[in-house]
Amino acid sequence: MIAPKLIESDLFTVIPGTRTHGKPFRSNSPQISLKRWKLGFYSLLAACTVWASVVSAEPSARLGKNDVKIRELIARGFYGRAAGLVTQTSASALIVRGHLWLKANRVARALAAFGKIETPPKGLGDFLTMRKAEALIRSKDPGAAMKTLETIKHPDKASPMLARLKARALREAGQVEAGRKSYQALMARALSGDIPVALLGLARLELQSGNFKQAYAHLRRLDLEYPVHWARTRSRSLVSLLKMSSKTMATQWTTRTQEEQVAKAERLLKFHRSRSVVKALKPLTGKMSTVELKCRQLYTMGHALRKLRKWTEARTYLLKAIPACAEAKSDLEPWARHIAGKADERLSNEIAAANHYREQIARHP
What we know:
Layout: H1 30-57, H2 67-76, H3 79-84, H4 91-103, H5 107-115, H6 125-138, H7 142-149, H8 161-172, H9 176-189, H10 194-208, H11 212-225, H12 230-234, H13 236-245, H14 247-254, H15 258-270, H16 274-281, H17 291-307, H18 311-327, H19 332-346, H20 350-363
Helix pairs in contact: 1-2, 1-4, 4-5, 5-6, 6-7, 6-8, 7-8, 8-9, 8-10, 9-10, 10-11, 11-13, 13-14, 15-16, 15-17, 16-17, 17-18, 17-19, 18-19, 19-20
């Protein structure tokens, strides 16, 4: 049996919107509420994956007196309280208990739970080893973590997170060159989840080594290409340190080319951060240096406003985007026409909407 894959939020971080030490994160923002729901769902899914693997290894395994209550607490994000209800002392129950303590950021208790396991259930040995290693890294013992990771029996079948754990252990152990090579290897894998983690790790490593220019390059790429990734959120303290180290870099950080601003807004739009898109691009209206950038800026603004249900304003931008994108010979031109037609439909401009669709078919059969 292959060890269950860890999700990104299991590693190295407490993401905004999660709970630590049993304290919930509260916000009235609909966007944050959706984030909390997703995090709760995926956390439950991850924990249940561990649980399912445990139960398949030991069909009679139970966790405590009230397994239903434990599942409920996991879904709500109260990992510490859920771990406290895991009272069984079987290897299976201890794995789940340690996993939950680790998610609650109670590293010492997680290590204590893992330390009581003499023989892991079949198929979960490597999973347990990686969780132990993560706990050791978070308890500031990277040397022990590296030794633990060396005992992985099936590295080819282990979670992709194994490479991330090794890279972080090397960095925190002060092995700069080895850590750099490990993070560069993560980048070379070109997996969407690995690149931002590698950029954050490299930025930390270069800052610790005093290589501010390299750290700046990694942090800038992380900010521009992965604006909504948890690694970008975790990089804010590094950016502050970088700004304090050099006034020149502080100025450079706040200076963005038009291409960079538009490209970042396009990535924000992809992840439905429509308000952030409008805030970033609205001041640039009428200031684009090329017709290609003008097309992208107007279309992205119109699309974001359409997502926000601001149909009249969206229509205004999209009507400007259509000729700009046609002049730039951009693939966005038919999309601008299509969304402009949708906006006109919403505004009860049926004739205008029909004209958009007719023109779209004629130009792009």
